Structures are given as C-alpha cells and as structure tokens.
Amino acid sequence: MPDISLLEPAVLRGVIEKLVTPENMLLSSRLPKSPHPFPTAQWDVIKGSRQVARPNIPNSEAHIVAPLGRAQMAASFIYLREKKVFNPTTLYWLRAPGTVSNKQNAEQAVLREVTDLNQRFDNFLEWACWAALTGTLTLTGDVVASIDYQIPASHKIASPTTQWSTATAQQMVADVTAWKRLIQRDARVPAREAFATDKTVSRIFNAFATAGAALLSDRSRDAYYSTGTLPGFLQLDWNVTDSMYDDTSGTPTLFVPDDTLFITNLTDGRPMEILEGPTADDEAPDGYTGKFSKTWKEKDPSARQYLLEWNVLPVITRPEQIVVVADVSTT
Known about the structure:
Elements: H1 9-18, E1 33-35, E2 40-47, E3 69-76, E4 78-85, H2 88-95, H3 100-133, E5 136-139, E6 145-148, E7 156-157, H4 169-187, E8 193-196, H5 198-211, H6 218-227, E9 237-240, E10 244-246, E11 252-254, E12 261-264, E13 272-276, E14 292-299, E15 302-316, E16 322-325
Parallel strand pairs: 1-13, 7-16, 8-9
Antiparallel strand pairs: 2-3, 4-15, 5-6, 8-12, 10-11, 12-16, 13-15, 14-15
Helix pairs in contact: 2-3
C-alpha cells in the first residue's frame, strides 16, 4: 500500500486541528473554545448588579454585600459522530503499488472527504451558536433536547412597535437605542455589536436615505455601498451575515433569518464560549477533548472508512449581554 500519511492517526488528528473555521461562520470562528474534561457541561450564569455603595461611619463594621447573582447550569454535550466510506476509485489508489501520481490522487481524495466531514460539524456548531443566542437551543430527530440559556424575557423582543418595513429613520433609532439600553441597564456593559442579514440592514439604510442623506455620514454611506455594512452606526458594529446551510431536507437556510436582529456585547467578561468535552471513542488518547478522528479498513465488503467525533456545546455565561428581536418586519 502506498504511504498515505493522512491515514496515520496522529497525522489525521493534526490535519483536523489545522482546519480553520471559515470567517463567514461569524460565531463559531470567533468564540473562544475551552476544553471541558467532564462528561456533562457545566457553566456559571452571572447577572450584574446596579446597586450603589452605602456610606458608612469610621470605625464601624463594614456593610455586608451579597455576591453577584450567579447560577450554575448543566447540560449534556451535543455528541456528533459521523463517518464516510471512500469510493472504489480511492480504494484502488490506496491499494495500488504504483506511482507518485496515484499517491497524490489518494491524498487529495482523502483530504476532500476529511474537509467535507469537518465542514458538516462546523455548520452544525454555527447553527447551534445562533440558536443559543435566541435563548433556546432545541434538538429534534434522533436526539430530542432543549437548553434554556436564561436570556431575560425583557431581552427577547417579538417585534418593534412599528414594523421596520414602514418605520421612519427616527423610529428605528428609538428602537435600537432602547434595545441597547437594556444591555447597559442589566449587564452594566455597553452594547457593541449588531448581527443581521443584508435584507435587514438595508431596511435601515433605505429609511435613512428616504429621510435625507444628511442623516448618514459619508463614511456610513460609502461603507454600505462597498461592503453592505454600517460600521459605527448608532455606536454599534453591524455584522452582516447571509451565510447558509442545507437543512435535513436539503433546503438552503440562513443561519440568521431575515428580519431577525441580535444586539450584543460578546466581548466583555467572556459572555459566550464553546465547551469541548471528552471523546467517547475508546481508541482516543486518555483525557482527549475536541474533535477526534480515525480511519480503518473493512475487509468485507472492502472499504476504507473515516470517522469524526466531537462532544461540543455553546454556553452563555452572561445572558444579559444579549438582546434578540425575533422579527423587525413581517413583510
């Protein structure tokens, strides 16, 4: 058999570790990942306090201050385990004694399959992260589960008072200002970012363009026409995401639906992260966390198989730093 380095377990795991999550996966590519060696994911939910200190008298006992609101959450990891069977042509390349060309073809074919399976896992994690930001991650199908991320009810907005399909620029400013204030009030940090699709952001731009160009800075107009974003608009960094995945029926689906808006602070205090749990495969090294991969050959029928496994879960430790608007416009 030709020397196919990708079939060596250590090399294969190294390749997986070096595969970078695409930048269009806005959450899974930027959120910090933490190894979690325990079989169940556990994390603290921290809530802020707006209380002020009370004056005291010299030489008196200090006032006792209650600790910050804190609750511990626990949930099972989401267990992903999938495999591929290499096609007969690849099997021929792998068992042929032949040429350098055969070896290169085999390595390219194996790498394509490895990358594709890894992309499926990354797509799932990106979907799970956006679902968590809505407040509830719900799994259906073979695994049925639901995780409540404790986002306050006041931070989950069904829709604005005036739908953005007809709202004026001033009404949109009032809406965004009020939603930002929820984060400032409850989490005691400023709102920093907004996430929406191009269709949603264009509603804002069109409303301001109709109201008069003077309401938008030259920088905002130029950025919108060149990149489709509104950097610094209303003191927020607007992230436009139109990335899609194929659902179980093969239908292209947006990770962030049109007219859904997220206003967040995902920077201060590490409010959201990805926990990677221990692998369940008995061939993995002791204490191994993260993506685990292996390959083997079946004798009957003859087939080379490649498997990828991952115990993973997005967690939110500071839910007050998130506001989600389910539908800014019904049209």
